[in-house]
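Chain A, query sequence.
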Amino acid sequence: MPPTGPQRLAILPCQFTDTPNVEPHDRQHLEDLFVNRGTGGLNDYWIAASLGAINLDGSEVFDWRVINETQAAYVAARPTRWDKIRGAIDAFGLAASDYAGFVAIFNTSVGDSGASGGVLAGPTDVNVTFLAHETGHLLGLNHSFDQSDRKDATWSAPGEYFDTYDIMSAMNVSNFSDPRFDQSGPLLCTANQDLMGWLPAARVWTPPSHQSSVTDIDLVSLGHPEVPGYLAARAGGYYIEFRTNDGWDAGLSEPCVLVHQLVGPNAVVIARDKTRFVNEWQPGQTLGPSDLEMALTGGTRLTIVSFDVANRTARIRVQNQVAKPIVAGPAIDVFGSVGVDGGGFVIVGGTVVKIPPRSPVLEMVTRLAMVSLAEQTSGAEVQGPTAKAALREVEQLAKQTRQR
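Chain A, predicted structure.
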């Protein structure tokens, strides 16, 4: 079940025998960072990122404690992340079952990362961006991706860590510098919020099912859920959200619409320009099939209409087209997909007819696609003379294909 309500963490500040007097942060700083509300710390972050579904109330910050080993000996004896976190838990004499997770903070570097049940942090990792990312793993979130083949490290997957608008891509995100807690933000994308069960259904627009429609909707900035309205649209497998460069998203360069998909447990941001790794969508831009493809095979097309930053809303046009086959007689249906260069395919009565780039067949398919809606009703014969002529040409092409 997705986590809801208080998520009680234990924060364990650890020193070594060779650095017993080094305390990078005092207890009050850590309590404000992890536990207290209204400080701009991690508790405030997760309340906002989960849309109020969870908090860190009841988390406990312990006093600095000297582990009876040198830093070098401790690291040598505990090769894995969890070994190091477990060593801190044991030093404080705590039971793993008493907390939702542990954050072991060391006064000198022992590495940093997350492990099942805990977070490992050094003195430079005590910031909201790093801690939100790693506690996100504790909560059940996975890394987010973009659509590129870039690799953040030799061991990472293509695109992993490159959704700069989602906390689960830290540390490659568009964050900002907080005067107390260093790096902070950004928010969690709506695809991940929905994956966790934190995105209220009443605040998600979805198109009417099993029918074609064109709808203009206003999306509220994700960072301002206090404004009434939809926080997301979900259509054609996409999550659409509006983000403004303020609050937890102050590190974003400009207001933008973001589009995500869920691929298994991972959120993937959809590019506006894959070659330049641009993922922000702006007014006047469109994502989705061409008119021809929409007519032939249906689909969903998104158009960014306008931004009203003062009122923290963006207007999005969602065109949802249900495919209706063009029928000539009882046995032959024609549909397909054509790319911008004219390449693609047409299926005629179950036969796949390939269309090479810039083929004159494109004109035939276009004529079929542009038959009036009345002539495209499923089960009805095509009546228009232009459509009939085009059907004959494509059927002939299909016959030749079958003979080959």
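The chain has nine helices and 23 strands. Residues 385-403 form the longest helix (19 residues).
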